[in-house]
Design a protein that fits this description.
388 residues; alpha/beta; Aspartate Aminotransferase, domain 2; Aspartate Aminotransferase, domain 1; four-stranded antiparallel sheet
Length: 388
């Protein structure tokens, strides 16, 4: 009997149970405890940054980063449309407005269009980028590193520096990806802009079941983010609060899982790279499909594999359905955010390639516990689904 092959599930075969048992035995299970501090330190050491702040989710990490970027009610933030909606919703949490940008062939933000928008649709007055049509101030860019592929940070940082924009890197899919050439050689995704946000959701390359992490260039920004994430307590004993804060802290149980998962991260990346290369080799023999490349300038974490259905008569939804009937889970790429009901009135700038890829791309099984025979089965049924 064929076993079900899921899209992406956790790999919990390290020290997770050992560390969680220790947490339970000490009864430090909530939002305080030694494993939170340890997870923050270990992530910072891995990323080669000074420090990091654990939080409730990748979405919380983005929200806190926007607040500390000075994004206020009525401001605008440039965002991609080809991403999960959680990358955009925090803009509205701040009562600000997203401006949607197209993707390039790497599925990350199109820097040529980003530059074009800033040059032709905005005025730069007294150190502030102003949207000519809406008259609103543009304060920041949220750039998402899609599926572990690092966006063109060289150009994004040039544009941000030119127009005095904060850069928030959504590296929720890209923990472990880093540049191998260029001016950012050796720099990890999330450590180049002003802020970096990470996620440890159940389908990410490492998981805590939920949870997130923030890093920042500026030590004071990170201190303030930690303060806001813990309800803005000025006096812990007497419950004095200086600002409106948030219940955004990670639990000690989650952090214990995270410490164990981080110990295995490089092993997971190696496995995922090998499976990616096997997929690529096998899929090259099938007409009408190919697996998208990662950017040559970086070592990706190979989080998700992107199957491109570029054959003329291939129906994306039919392929997904046929694979599921054979116990193989796949998914289409996210619905474009600018087409979602909450954002139908938002400004968009030359959205073209995102629409094309939305209809041509599916994600195929990529778990770090995927076996060679699983990969071969997936490819076999992809082939069958195309010609039935």
């Amino acid at each position: 009997m064929n076993e079900f092959i899921p899209l992406s599930v956790p790999n919990l075969k390290g020290n997770e149970l050992k560390y969680v048992t220790e947490v339970v035995e000490t009864e430090w299970v909530s939002t305080g405890g030694a494993y939170i501090d340890k997870f923050e330190k270990n992530i910072a050491d891995y990323l080669k940054v000074e420090s990091a702040v654990a939080c409730q989710s990748g979405t919380a990490a983005l929200h806190l980063s926007l607040i500390q970027s000075g994004v206020c009610s009525g401001d605008e933030v440039i965002v991609p449309t080809l991403t999960f909606i959680a990358a955009v919703n925090p803009v509205r949490y701040c009562n600000a407005y997203p401006v949607f940008m197209d993707c390039d062939d790497s599925l990350t933000m199109d820097t040529y269009k980003l530059k074009g928008f800033c040059e032709t649709k905005c005025d730069y007055i007294n150190g502030m980028l102003i949207n000519i049509e809406t008259k609103r101030k543009i304060k920041a860019i949220i750039v998402v590193h899609i599926f572990g592929n690092i966006a063109n940070m060289t150009e994004i940082m040039k544009i941000a520096n030119r127009y005095n924009l904060k850069v928030i890197e959504d590296a929720t899919e890209a923990l472990g990806s880093y540049y191998t050439e260029g001016i950012y050689k050796g720099k990890f995704a999330g450590t180049i802009g002003d802020f970096g946000a990470y996620s440890f959701n159940g389908n990410k390359i490492i998981t805590t079941g939920g949870g997130g992490m923030v890093v920042a260039k500026n030590r004071e920004d990170l201190r303030k983010i930690k303060y806001l994430s813990t309800q803005a307590k000025d006096d812990i004993l007497y419950y004095v609060h200086g600002e409106v804060g948030y219940n955004y802290r990670m639990t000690n149980i989650q952090a214990a899982i995270g410490v164990a998962q981080l110990e295995k991260l490089e092993e997971f990346i190696k496995i995922k790279k090998n499976n990616y290369n096997l997929y690529k080799e096998l899929l090259n023999e099938i007409d009408g499909v190919n697996i998208l490349n990662f950017n040559k300038s970086n070592r990706p974490n190979y989080w998700f594999y992107t199957l491109m259905l570029d054959g003329y008569n291939i129906n994306r939804d039919q392929v997904i359905k046929k694979l599921y009937e054979n116990k193989i889970q796949t998914r289409p790429i996210w619905g474009l955010v600018h087409e979602q009901k909450p954002y139908l009135d938002a400004e968009c700038y030359k959205i073209e390639k995102a629409c094309y890829y939305h209809n041509k791309v599916i994600n195929i099984p990529c778990s770090s516990n995927l076996k060679k025979e699983d990969v071969m089965k997936v490819v076999q049924y992809i082939n069958k689904s195309l010609f039935q």
